[in-house]
Amino acid sequence: MKKQEIFNGRVISLAIEEHELPDGRRADFEMVHHAGGAAVLPILADGRVLLIRQFRPAAGGMIWEIPAGRLEGGEAPETCIHRELQEEVGYRAGRVERLGEMLTAVGFCDEVVHLFVARDLVPVPAAPEPDEYIEAVPMPLDEALRLLRAGEIPDGKTQLALLLHLQNQP
Prior knowledge:
Elements: E1 3-8, E2 12-20, E3 26-34, E4 37-42, E5 49-56, E6 61-65, E7 68-70, H1 77-89, E8 91-103, E9 112-123, E10 134-139, H2 141-149, H3 156-167
């Protein structure tokens, strides 16, 4: 495979890569490489879900999300969500359950986001990153689903986590 690296940054790298198609032809693709991430839907003891409103310049401002972060140096997804729960919303999970995973932008990016649910939450001091602005908002699952149906949750990982969690309800 021929590869021309264009950019290598802290979060992503960009390259033009030649790949062989299933029919034997070769083609160049612009590829964004990302270490991947993990995201978690926190469930409070009373059954409410904990969503966050986070400032996202790429999305034009504040958006609804679930806590999430980038995998650091081969980090396990479970380790990442435990870190992000504490940093972003000030909780430690007693129990986590895997919901699945998603590819974020299959046309040009190899990022995989691992999705989890966290339960048995214990409050701990929050420690957001210096470039994060986050508001934690507990709400009934029905309210989160109303926001989803109303188109007020544009974030794909949050949409999928809510739907997978709903699907797993008794």
